[in-house]
Design goal:
Distance between the termini: 35 Å
Helix content: 25-40%
Shape: globular
Radius of gyration: 17 Å
CATH topology: Rossmann fold
CATH superfamily: Vaccinia Virus protein VP39
Order of helices and strands: HEEHEHEHEEHHEHEEEEH
Oligomer: single chain
Structural class: alpha/beta
Number of helices: 8
CATH class: Alpha Beta
Length: about 250
């Protein structure tokens, strides 16, 4: 009975499939979208690596990592208590308690506690896309925190990632193209050298709406720009690459 309560769905929640045999609890302002799935695939850890997901929300990225690879440990950091509770219940439902560790806290304060170890191989983050003072903030706390830089800016994120990565460790993120220049500058200032960039377009004839970026701690200058990732065919429907990325996920999540 106690274990059932520890994994039960709350009012307004539902299970969303991620991969064969793996699902995540979503609802109450905490869900995930195509950008989350793309970042999880772009940043997929190698077997045996120790990783972290900063701003994990409902925990979709750590769950996808464990479904598609075999990381030794994943630290899922989230500042919102209710999202942490959802993520913990999803981890228990998928019997990944020994691999995924949910840590509640502000990434700016991580160095002051022992919730996350130093020397990580990989850190990923799907950060708020709206810089402080821009856009129209949502009235719902969960959406406002996820979409707007309420708790620090991208430079704070870059500094935290650099502090916890080992030398040569990787940091991966996604962001809107309009913020590409600021993102590159913030990463380099933190000692994270941009190494791999890929734009995401809805279809070939459309402008990019997202970019995926990998940076290395202490890396040498020089960045690879990969061909654009197309979400749809011109004729409609997911592209072949998107179908491979979604894999055994039902039909994909938009």
């Amino acid at each position: 009975m106690e274990e059932t309560m520890r994994t039960a769905l709350r009012e307004g929640e539902k299970l969303e499939p991620l991969w064969k045999g793996v699902s995540v609890i979503v609802g109450a302002g905490h869900t995930f979208g195509t950008d989350t799935v793309l970042l999880a695939a772009f940043s997929l850890p190698k077997a045996g690596e120790v990783c972290a997901d900063f701003g994990t929300g409902c925990g979709a990225i750590p769950l996808l990592w464990c479904a598609r690879s075999r990381p030794k440990a994943v630290y899922a950091v989230e500042i919102q208590p209710f999202a942490c509770d959802m993520a913990r219940r999803s981890v228990r439902r998928n019997r990944l308690d020994e691999t995924i560790h949910v840590a509640e806290g502000d990434i700016r304060d991580l160095r002051a506690n022992a919730a996350v170890p130093h020397g990580l191989d990989l850190i990923a983050c799907n950060p708020p896309y709206q810089a402080a003072g821009t856009g129209i903030p949502s009235r719902a706390d969960g959406k406002r925190i996820a979409r707007h830089e309420v708790f620090g800016g991208f430079s704070d994120l870059a500094a935290a990632a650099a502090a916890f990565l080992r030398w040569g460790g990787r940091f991966c993120c996604c962001m809107r193209p309009a913020r590409l220049c600021d993102t590159l500058l913030a990463l380099r200032a933190a000692g994270l050298e941009p190494k791999r960039l890929r734009f995401v377009q809805q279809r070939e004839s459309a402008a990019p709406f997202l970019f995926l970026l990998q940076a290395g701690r202490g890396g040498k200058p020089g960045m690879e720009v990969a061909p654009a990732l197309l979400v749809e065919r011109e004729s409609g429907g997911f592209s072949d690459e998107m179908l491979r990325i979604y894999g055994q996920n039902r039909e994909g999540t938009t």
